[in-house]
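Thought: the user asked what Polarity suppression protein looks like in 3D. I have the sequence; next I should run the structure tool and report back without guessing.
Action: structure_tool
Action Input:
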Amino acid sequence: MTSITTEQAFTACEANKAAWLERRAKLAQAEQELRSQILNPDEQIPARMKWLREVIEVRKWEVNQAAGRYIRSHEEVQRLSIQHRLNDFMQAHGAELAAALAPELMNLNGQSALIKNRAFDRSTAYLRDALAAWLEEGAEINYAAQDNDILTAIGFRPDAASRVDYQEKYTPAQNLIYARRKAGLPAREPV
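Observation:
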């Protein structure tokens, strides 16, 4: 398994955001064209309007899919940053942390997976409580210096509009149907 860097994840996130925004623009263009057809009727209007409605339906699906990819790639950048910074922390302070949690972690080697998982769960609860108490004191939270530029650039959360665009959930069968419709649309455009 190849390890992806935070920079590579950031590049993918930016590309997914650009693709989502491009698809949103194409959807808006198709919707505008449909409104224009309604306001300026001609003899081709029934066939053209039917085709435009199909295009809009497919474009909405494309926007939904692109928004999902963008949201997942945004989360991946954050996940990688957290994972890398925690790995750095453990390299520098892992022995101290293990010593603090020694009453839970001692003699885990050779224990069953159930006992190990229970000890890790309790240790995680202690860490959660300690972090919550530390935050209650009003500690200031900043991004790690190594990832500050990347995390600042992508923002704390994905764009709110992407979450709205990704609200509708499609079944695998629906995804297949829309993918087929997308493939067949250019060939069917009425003149």
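Thought: the tool returned a structure. Summarizing for the user.
Final Answer: Structure for Polarity suppression protein predicted. The domain at 6-92+147-188 is CATH 1.20.58.1090 (Methane Monooxygenase Hydroxylase; Chain G, domain 1). Residues 124 and 130 are 10 Å apart (CA to CA).
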